[in-house]
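FAQ: What does the model actually see?

It sees only this:
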Amino acid sequence: MNATSGVGMISVGVLGASFLGTLQDVALDRNLSRTHPDAYQVVTEQPQTKFAFTFHALDAAKIERLPQAQRSLVEKTIAETKQAIIAKFSILSAMLMFCYLGLHLYFKFLGG
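And it is asked to produce this:
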């Protein structure tokens, strides 16, 4: 039983990290293309498809070569997008907390 739980947790960690990274890349592609289309054309790579999402990944070396003003705008967009994705994922943790709290209270009232 413990081995099965361990394998499940490892799977969630390995697949979850990749999926979260893909969602960040998709959101970055969408946000940067909308907010800074001129920089977007310069810093993106060829389209990639992961987990059924197609997006243009960003090239960090190309971002570093941008002029300072444009680079700071791109970096600001990247930071805001990453924070927004993490905030969306934290909703899942909050929902789980309330579900477990509800289960705890349910069994507590049953006398358990």
